[in-house]
Amino acid sequence: MSGTNKSVFLARMQVVAVALKKHFNRKSLVLSSVTWKSDALIKRLEEQAALLRASDQAHAAWKHAVKVQVKDAAEVRKLLRNIQTYVSATCGLEGPIFGDFGFTRPPKKTLASKVAAVEKRRATRAARHTLGKKQKLAVRAPAMIEVSVADGPHSVQPPKSGANGAGTQP
Questions:
Q1: What is the pLDDT of residue 16?
Q2: Whole-Å CA distances, 79 to 76, 83, 86
Q3: 3-state SS string over the chain?
Q4: Among 42, 74, 57, 40, which residue's Cα sits nearest to residue 6?
Q5: Least packed by Cβ within 10 Å: which of 32, 73, 86, 154?
Q6: For residue range 68-79, what is the model confidence (pLDDT) as tens digits?
Q7: What is the pLDDT of residues 78-94, one digit of tens each?
Q8: CA neighbours closer than 13 Å in the CB half-sphere of residue 20
Q9: Which among 110, 111, 132 is positioned nearest to 121, based on CA atoms?
Q10: Are the C-beta atoms of residues 61 and 39 closer than 8 Å to each other?
Q11: pLDDT digits 0-9 by tens, 33-45
Q12: Residue 155's closest CA among 169, 143, 166, 139?
């Protein structure tokens, strides 16, 4: 029986219970040196089926409760941020009232941490080959592009206006 899923297990128990009623009704069976009445076996199978259904219902209810709790927690986190903003705006970050709410003042950024952040940003941009607005303006397509086709080389002029996202030529 190992390795079977719940629906197969449940269906098997139901089939066995029906077969016990049909073929061994009110008879005794010796199973693993234990004598069982067929009615007791059927009752035992029905109990297990009921437990299986109850556990499935409890699992579904638990999943629903977790889903509801996660959604509500997101709303409450937003509410807590709004309360913190309100308290800091009305009472300040330094006073005892801010601490009474369990809020802590955000750490001050030091010059060293700011410099480290700028260097980290530059390194990331260099690694990703990203450009700022002004650097992008400096990138231009060549004036003439040589294109080789089957019948011989041809010169093609790039578009002058912003057609298809291309930049303008100086």
A1: 95
A2: 5, 6, 10
A3: CCCCCHHHHHHHHHHHHHHHHHHCCCCEEEECCEEEEHHHHHHHHHHHHHHHHHHHHHHHHHHHHHHHHHHHHHHHHHHHHHHHHHHHHHHCCCCHHHHHCCCCCCCCCCHHHHHHHHHHHHHHHHHHCCCCHHHHHHCCCCCCEEEEECCEEEEECCCCCCHHHCCCCC
A4: 57
A5: 32
A6: 999 999 999 999
A7: 999 999 999 999 988 88
A8: 21
A9: 132
A10: no
A11: 999 999 999 999 9
A12: 143
Instruction: Give yes or no for a contact between 41 and 20, defined as CB atoms under 8 angstroms apart.
Output: yes
> Rounded to two decimals, what is the model's pTM?
0.49
**Residue with token string 């693993």:** 32
Mean pLDDT of the chain: 84
pLDDT at 138 over 90: no
Answer whether 158's CB lies under 8 Å from 169's CB: yes
